[in-house]
Structure formats: C-alpha cells, structure tokens
Q: What sequence folds into this?
C-alpha cells in the first residue's frame, strides 16, 4: 500500500512569504493612502473647481456619496473629494484586471534558470518596495500631488506584474490533491502579513511616543516609517524566496517537453497530438470555469462590501467608533486565520466544491440570523456570531476557490488561470462599492448590508453548484491514467 502524500509545510510556509509580502503592503496601502489623498485633494484648487462643476451638473453623485457615509456639504459648498479618492483607490483593481491575466499567461511560457515565476517576483518586488517607500514622502516632504499620483500609478502597475506569478508558485510546487491544504498555509501567511500591516501604525506611534513624547509628534510624521516597514518586510520576503525556494529550471522542462513531443509525434495519432498541443478545455470544462468565475464575482461583491462598509455600518447601527470597528474586524481576521489549516484539510477530505458551498451557506445563514435577531429584539448580540462564524466560513471559501479554478486549467496553465481568478475577483472589487452604494442610497440604512450580502452569497451558491470540475485527482488514480496513456 502506497504512503499517503503529505504537504511539506516548511516549503509551503517559505513559499507563503511571497503572499505575506503582498498582504502587508495592501493592509498599509488602503487606510493610509485614503488619508493622504483626502488631505491633498481637499487642499487642491483644481479638485475644488472640478467638484463644484460635477456637483452642479450631476446632483445624484451627491446622493450616492451621502449613501456611502460621506459628508459632501461643506462651508464652501460641495466637495466630491471622496469620489476622486474612490476612483484612485480602484486603480489597483483595474490594473489587476488588465495586466494580471496577461502576466500570468506570460509566466506560463517563461523559460529561465530561475524558473517560470521567480523572475517576475525577484524583479517586481524590489521595485514595488522602492515605490511604496516613496509614496508618503511625496506628501510629507514635497507636498506634490503629481508626484504622489506618479508613485501610486507606478506602484499599483508593478504590483500587478508579479501578483499572479507569486500566487501561482505554490500550485506549481505542490501536488494537485494537496493544493487546498497548501493554499490554507499560504492564506495563513498572508493573514500574518496583513495583521502586521494592520498594527504597524500603532506600533510606530508607540515608539515615536517613547522617543519624542506623547504630544510632541503628529501622525503624519509616522507615515514614511510605516511605509518603510512594509517595504523592508517585502524585501525580506523576497530574499526568503530567492535563497530558500527553489523553482525548477523551466528551460530544462521546456526542452524535455519538446523532446517528448517529438517522440509522441511518432507514436500517437493525429487527434491525440492536436489535443496535447492545444490543451483546449472541453465544453463541460469551459462551462464549469464560466460558472466558477461568475460565482467568484458574486462572492467577492459581498466580501468587498463587508470590508468596505463595515465601519460605516458599525457607526450607524452598532454605535461604534472607527477604532472599535477595526477591532471587530480583527476578530473576523483572527477567526479566518485559525480556520485556515482546517479549511484546507476539509477541502482535501470532502472536496473543494462541497467545502466552498458549506462556507457560503454558513456565511449566508449567520448573516440572516443577525438580521432577524436585530429586527425582532433590536439588540446586536448576534453580530459577534456573524464575525466569528463568518470569519471561519470565509476561510473555508477562500482556501478552496483558487485550487479549484487551477485544477480546471491543468498544470501547464496555472499562471493563466490564476489571472482568470483575479480578473473575476478584482472586477467584483471594482463593482461592489458602486453596487452596494446604490443599494444603501435607496434603502437609507446600512442594515441593508445584511440583506445585500446573503443575496450575493445565494447567487454565488447557484453558480458554484453548477461547477462539475476542479476536484483534485488522487495520486493513485493519476498514476493509473498515466499508465494507460503510456500503454497506448
């Protein structure tokens, strides 16, 4: 009896440093860039003129922003600064939709001594780290809006060039049947990076307080050091990938594949040769891929609405401050991290699709429990259940979706299908603030978040239930199939 395959946790954790590098910088980027942009755009005469013109021509924009919790009326009239901030903050998602599929596909065909994925990481990560460190200086030192925008645009572009390759690295180096468990470890590493990014500002504020005194510095003075911390961690993670993660020389594999193709050309029939060369998905596989990508879109439309609007929901319905809302979301994050490894094992044991659907049903159910309990009792006790069980359910879904998509594509197209995955998720992240912003505008309450999200979850369930492919083929069955091919 053959020994059951086991995940190499040490190797997978080392690979996870790449995802940790991206997680920490995005956790810093989102809250700090909005603060910087708000300060600089509010003091821009050009933006003030544009705001006045847009407010006069399109008053519905003001209603939309009010629905998102923004104060759009000021002493000087109207300001649409939040609209411009929202547009700029979608740049990373837009660049991801445009460039990540192409770079993922390009990395599939890359042939270097360092492998297929690592060249993109080893070039892109240091450049991203440099640009990331420069961003706050454009605000604190130079007060230059053009300089800030150049750094932001270049940063999000370079990040989009290596995100698909860094995510594809784990599936490349992990057997298919272990990818859900491997993705759990990767997400756990990402959670650690995100947590470091989340508390970095607080840690540096404490350090500044000890050095200069509690009231002798401003929060803005800490910005360059917060961003520098993110850049340093990114560089360290890149060095870990360079020295400790060994990717096979893709030139050797490409040559072996070419030699094998020549041999197969003599032995196989024309139909088989064509199929191996083109590697086209069957009609059923294409159908599964399409439904899965739509399922991801609806799923992330819900998830992004939660992360974007929870602080506003907490202020209106729960009566919480922003700091308290952040602490509540930290509970959600910790529960997700604790569920990471068990979620991968569930996907491995019971199947990825079943685990994803179970997570969606739990997520949808617990949100409805909170909504019903609040409408009946007017109390918010069930929100903690939503955070705890929702965090666990979130990881049951997240850990298994990417491996399922990659399994549909096959081993030779991991980069390409990683790009497809992020196209669906980033498209949702662009659409979600607009869609839920409109829902909030027409409903007049952030309680509608707990109606909107279950509906989006239900649509995701309906789509993913139609997926018929994407489960890992057990190693024993894979060997039998290979033996049958060799016998032909």
A:
């Amino acid at each position: 009896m053959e020994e059951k395959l086991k995940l190499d946790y040490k190797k997978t954790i080392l690979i996870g440093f790449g995802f940790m590098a991206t997680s920490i910088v995005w956790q810093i980027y989102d809250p700090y860039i909005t603060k910087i942009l708000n300060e600089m755009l509010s003091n821009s005469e050009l933006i003030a003129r544009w705001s006045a013109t847009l407010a006069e021509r399109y008053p519905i924009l003001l209603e939309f922003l009010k629905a998102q919790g923004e104060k759009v009326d000021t002493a000087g009239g109207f300001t649409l600064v939040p609209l411009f901030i929202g547009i700029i903050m979608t740049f990373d998602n837009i660049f991801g939709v445009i460039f990540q599929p192409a770079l993922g596909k390009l990395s599939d065909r890359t042939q270097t001594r360092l492998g297929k994925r690592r060249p993109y990481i080893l070039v892109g990560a240091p450049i991203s780290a440099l640009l990331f460190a420069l961003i706050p200086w454009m605000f604190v030192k130079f007060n230059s809006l053009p300089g800030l925008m150049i750094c932001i645009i270049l940063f999000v572009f370079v990040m989009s060039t290596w995100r698909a390759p860094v995510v594809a690295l784990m599936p490349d180096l992990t057997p298919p049947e272990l990818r859900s468990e491997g993705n759990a470890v990767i997400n756990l590493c990402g959670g650690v990076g995100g947590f470091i990014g989340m508390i970095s500002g607080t840690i540096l504020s404490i350090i500044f307080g000890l050095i200069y005194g509690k009231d002798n510095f401003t929060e803005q003075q800490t910005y360059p050091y917060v961003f520098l911390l993110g850049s340093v961690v990114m560089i360290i993670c890149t060095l870990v990938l360079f020295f400790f993660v060994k990717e096979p020389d893709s030139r050797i594999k490409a040559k072996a594949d070419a030699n094998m193709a020549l041999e197969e050309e003599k032995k196989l029939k024309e139909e088989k040769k064509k199929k191996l060369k083109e590697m086209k998905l069957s009609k059923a596989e294409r159908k599964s891929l399409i439904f899965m990508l739509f399922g991801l879109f609806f799923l992330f439309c819900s998830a992004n609405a939660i992360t974007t609007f929870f602080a506003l929901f907490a202020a209106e319905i729960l009566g919480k401050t922003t700091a308290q809302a952040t602490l509540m979301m930290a509970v959600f994050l910790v529960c997700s991290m604790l569920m990471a490894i068990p979620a991968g094992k569930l996907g491995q044991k019971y199947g990825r699709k079943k685990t994803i659907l179970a997570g969606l049903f739990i997520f949808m159910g617990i949100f409805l429990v909170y909504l019903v309990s609040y409408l009946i009792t007017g109390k918010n006790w069930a929100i903690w259940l939503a955070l705890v069980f929702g965090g666990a359910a979130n990881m049951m879904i997240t850990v298994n979706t990417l491996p399922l998509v990659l399994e549909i594509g096959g081993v030779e197209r991991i980069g390409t299908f990683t790009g497809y995955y992020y196209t669906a998720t980033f498209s949702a992240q662009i659409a979600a603030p607009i869609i839920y912003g409109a829902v909030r505008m027409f409903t007049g309450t952030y309680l509608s978040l707990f109606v909107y999200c279950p509906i989006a979850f239900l649509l995701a369930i309906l789509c993913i239930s139609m997926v018929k492919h994407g489960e890992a083929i057990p190693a024993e069955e894979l060997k039998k199939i290979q033996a049958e091919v060799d016998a032909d």
